[in-house]
């Protein structure tokens, strides 16, 4: 009995020694981004770390060492129709529009009581800071405020403008920019165009966009001791670790420096049993089930009436039952094979062996889930990374992509027929699933390992290469004196 007590005591002592105080600075209201990293925050607390999470999204049933700081909600101006915008949308202009729009969102996010209170707090101590860097470069200064190593997380693949600070190779001849509209199988002219775009995005970002983030840093992050703060560029180059929501099975293969770690799919898990009514539908579908969902941001009720009728008309012709995520209360006579609900347990549906096709917008989490469960996709891509994700999957043979700007009933009918009857799409999806799952560590375990590695090695700055010092932007950018 004494030996058991001694062992327990040693384990408690070891756990106490290994635990760290970690701050996750995630004040932005972007549920689709936050959801991919929420399992990481929870697991860090489960494994004994003291987690403080500043976020608009509270965790259900949090562990004892998980402390949530609620960020005040706001009413976002989301009355725009993404389908209307997509008809005239050119992905190549996304960076330029982002440089105009995102500093405003960043300022709106910082200028909230809970965020400002944390920035000006005096008694808190953290051993590590985590923040999302999706056009929020000014957030990096929270590491200086708490004198702690910094881990940045990305909801997708960092672009050339981000890669430059860490010396991560970003070679336009074979790494397509997510906004270029190109896959990794580029012609000579596409390679030349992609290279030029990468250079333009990087140069203009440094000269025009980053100074705006620096101004926000100086305006709002004026905590005690800010006078000793290095430039924003210096702090960006000093980030210890970058966790990316990507993997070569669902994206483009590319070289990564040791501090860049791909952790796509931390939210993925084996499918669970469905609610009884859905389980009966899925189990008793001899021809299979088609699942139709455009995620949590795009509302299908905003589709133009004629296009909505096109989709419903074609879905009504197939012999499969269709689980259709529909956000409206409007009374519509759907065909008998279409089952509508405002919410479906997406992962558990995709993980059921009778799910034969996923009709999706091509968002990153939906793409990850489709590949994890080996389900082919018909992607109607509207904007953002959806266009790139679905293009990659099409080139891998696991999907057919229809750009919404080119949507027609004929194109949808042809793609629907082909993905349902050509077995090669299912075979390729299964093949990619095997590739994705064949990893030495699950993505969540990998992320935990490297975060704890950074803590153990006090920032682990040996992971960086000297290429970090070879940037052309002056060190003075991002200081109070600019």
Automatic annotation (TrEMBL):
<keyword id="KW-0325">Glycoprotein</keyword>
<dbReference type="InterPro" id="IPR050271">
    <property type="entry name" value="UDP-glycosyltransferase"/>
</dbReference>
<comment type="similarity">
    <text>Belongs to the UDP-glycosyltransferase family.</text>
</comment>
<protein>
    <submittedName>
        <fullName>UDP-glucuronosyltransferase 2C1-like isoform X1</fullName>
    </submittedName>
</protein>
<dbReference type="InterPro" id="IPR002213">
    <property type="entry name" value="UDP_glucos_trans"/>
</dbReference>
<keyword id="KW-1133">Transmembrane helix</keyword>
<keyword id="KW-0256">Endoplasmic reticulum</keyword>
<keyword id="KW-0472">Membrane</keyword>
<keyword id="KW-0328">Glycosyltransferase</keyword>
<dbReference type="GO" id="GO:0005783">
    <property type="term" value="C:endoplasmic reticulum"/>
</dbReference>
<dbReference type="GO" id="GO:0008194">
    <property type="term" value="F:UDP-glycosyltransferase activity"/>
</dbReference>
<keyword id="KW-0808">Transferase</keyword>
<keyword id="KW-0732">Signal</keyword>
<dbReference type="Pfam" id="PF00201">
    <property type="entry name" value="UDPGT"/>
</dbReference>
<feature type="signal peptide">
    <location>
        <begin position="1"/>
        <end position="19"/>
    </location>
</feature>
<keyword id="KW-0812">Transmembrane</keyword>
